Amino acid sequence: MSVIGTFVATFPFHGGMSSQRIRRALRPDVYAIADRQGVVITSELQFRLDRTGAGQFIVVQAEAFSTRPVAEVRKHAELMAYEHEVAHPVMAGWIGRQLRAVRS
Known about the structure:
single chain, 104 residues, alpha+beta, four-stranded antiparallel β-sheet, 4 strands, 32% strand
C-alpha cells in the first residue's frame, strides 16, 4: 500500500539568486531527497520563500506518494515535523497550515 500526501523540503536561503536560478539549482536536490526517502513526486514542485527569525528558507512542496510502509511513513513524518518545529517554529507553523488547507 502506498501513502499519498504532500512532500515538503526546506533549504536555507542566503540571497543573491533569482527565482528561476533557485528552481534550477534545487530541483535535482529535491528529487534526490525524495528518492532517498522512497517518495515519488507526482506534481509540479512549488517554491516559496519563508522569512523567519532564524533566517530565510526556501520551502519546496509537491504532491507525492511513498512506497514505504504506512507506519514507517508516519514515524518519519513525525520526526521531520518535530525537527522543523525545533529549528524553525514559524516555518513549521506555515507548513502545518498549508498541509491542513490541502486536506480540507
